[in-house]
Every structure is written in C-alpha cells, then in structure tokens.
Amino acid sequence: PREEVAYVTCTYRETCNDQPDFLATIDLNPRSPCYGQVIHRLPMPNLKDELHSSGWSAGCTCFDNVTARRNKLILPCLISSRIYVVDVGSQCQAPKICKMIEPVDVFWKCNKGYLAVVRSLPNGDVLIANMGDPAGNGKGGFIVLDGETFDLKGNWENKCETPPTGYDFCYKPCHNVLISSAGLVPKIAGRGFCPDDLKKGVFGHRLNVWNLSCRSLTQCFDLGEDSLPLSVKFLHNPNAAEGYVSCALSGIIYRFYKCEANNWAVEEVIRIPAKDVSGWIMPKMPAFTVDLVISMDDKYLYLSNWLHGDIRQYELSKNCKPRLVGQVFVGGSILRGGPVTVCRDEELKCQPEPLVIKCKRVYGGPSKMQLSLDGKRLYVTNSFYSTWDKQFYPNLVREGSAMLQIDVDTEKGGLTVNKNFLVDFGKEPNGPCLAHDIHFPSGDSTS
Fold this sequence. Notes:
The chain is mainly beta. Helices cover 6% and strands 38% of the residues. The protein is globular. GO terms for molecular function: methanethiol oxidase activity; selenium binding.
C-alpha cells in the first residue's frame, strides 16, 4: 500500500533551544486535510540526546514468523547513547514510548557508546551499530537487544573482533554475511569538521565483512584514508550477493560482491568529482555522499550529496556500471549568490539556483532519504549531524529543517522536486528543529 504516515527523528541539539528531541508523525495521505503536516509529536524525556537513526523491531527477514510486526520503532541516540523503544502499533498516528535503556547500562554492559544505525536480525533480535566507547574514542561493533523484551543482551561481535570505527551495516542471511562501514571518532568529530583531521585517523576508511552466524570478522577492505564509507546497502533480491557502499569524502561508490571460496571483493563503480572552490573551508569541496538507497526492484540507486546539494539517480545494470539518469539540486553549499564560488567544475556549467518551496528557502543539502515501495516518491531531509549542520549550514539551524518529496520517473529515470509538498520544521511550536531519519509503518526501501 501507498505510505500514509512517516516517522521522522528530530533534534534540538545545537539549536540553542533547550527542548527535548521528538519523533514527528507526518501525514503523507494526499487526500487528507493535514497532508504534509506534522500531526503528532512524541517528545523524549531527556535533553540533547540527538535522535539520529531509527529502525524497526522486525524486518523483512523476520516475516516468515507470523507474529512479526512493525509495531515497535527503535530510537538509539547518537550523543547520549540512550535507547528508546516506541510503540507505533497501538496508535499509528500517536506513538508512545514503551521502554527506555539508559546510557549507563550501555556503558557498563557493553563498553560502547554513540549509537548509530539499527536493524532487526533474522532471529528477531535488534542489532545497533556504535561509533565509539563511552569516552568518545573510536570503537566499532554492535550491541544487541532482545527482540521481544528489548532488554540489553550485550555485545554482538566476538571479543577481539572490534573495528576501530563503525556506523552502518547490512546483511544477507542466505550468504551468512554482514557488511559494516566505518564512521568517525566521536569526540574529535564532535568539535566540527577540520581538514587537518584527514590524516589523523579521525575518519574511518574500512569496509568490514563479517560471518553472520559466527559473529566474526573475515575480511577488511581499506578504501583509503580520505574515503569515510558511511552508507552500505545490499541489493534487495534475497539471493543477490552484491551491494554498494558510498564514501563521503572521496565521492567514490564501491560495489562489493561475492567471488570464489566465499570471499568478497570491491570495485569502484561511481566517482563524483570534487569541485574547486573559493570561500570555503578547503580549496576543493568533496562530494559528501551521506545516504544511499536502492529501489525495491533493484533497478535504481539513489545518492544524497550533502555538501554539493544534489540527489542522484543511477540505473543499475547487469554490467555492474551504474548510469546516471536523474539529478536534482535541493540546496547545498554551491548555490548561486552564496559565500562559495565554484572556480572549476567537471560536471556543471553554472552554480545551481536556490530552492524555494511554498515561500520557504530550503537551506542545507540532502541528507537522509526514504523511497516508497513503488519507487515513485523519494522523501528527503537535510540534517546530517547537528554539530556539522551548525558549521556548514548555520541558516539551516536557525530556520529549521525541511522534508521534501522528489517525484521519480521509474521508466526512463529522472527526478523532479514536488513543489506541492513541504514539511517545514522551522514552524515547530518549540522552535526550529533538525530532522533526520524517515520510516514508513507500511514498509520502506531501507528495512
């Protein structure tokens, strides 16, 4: 069915507004009088959590179990390391918190912190990737919640198998593999982006291959010290032994695939060139690809380029060479009339125009995306991480986030901003906030 409701994580951290983060319920039914509006807000009971990623307590790999339902949404906190379990099954449009795991439990039981991406495991348990230890040093790995009680069970990976950094992950049960990406060292990245950090190990650059059943590392790929692999996705076909990972700093997208003897390999398939600029923190502005989404039919791949400001649509083909078929700018740092001047650009002839929808100027670049199951509507928010939002897009922090809808041509390819849809998080009752992750209870392309 078409999505009628979206749940969006929203934070007030770094906005100079001491309000709790909240989960926004968005009306996506075009026939509703509240279409495109926030119809419910579920405030968290604490301040400065930084709600970031979210995930369902049951994913598609659990649905051979007739009792599995998408009725609980898991909200791990990037900064506080707290975990909220939200009941969305009792009242779809008015969810409520049903359980909370305090940071001290995560610290003492797992020696982990700075919680990032969450996904359900085939056995029904919930897996959450972490970026650091309690002190903010880099530390990868995962923690596990019981899929029924949501009690904290402990660490997932075997001892001595912890990567130096972590962020996102995906898995394929039929190939007994889990693949995880790198992240940032929290206590240093939390000070803001500094070009000098590129050579100091602040940004992770490994792609990790795990044995899913043994919970052990089997392979590691070093993608380069200037890579920062963030978003990683398998194709949706349950038997497909391939996927893609986007590297935020290098602008490279790698395809990973299974080869002989159960080993995995990587190859570069997309490279988005940096732009020579003036008026920015560095003379070259990299393609900072924050998110990657694959359509349910495995036909298209979508990238959000947070710094340059564009969303890209690539057609996936059997020759493993993605072809750019759609592109649209929805903000970014290189807009005409802004402080940044593009001196040399391998792709564009001129700087893009600012985006205005329903009289609102959209600041910031595209960050998190969510694609409808039919592939025709791509929703996008523009907050990446509050500290970096404040550094690169101060107007975004002052004016608040926006959630946009991009109409997709699923036949020939092509992207168009829907000028009739805008969720303006600058008009929140408690002041402008920053919106990030998006999920649909009816099912979405990332869970």
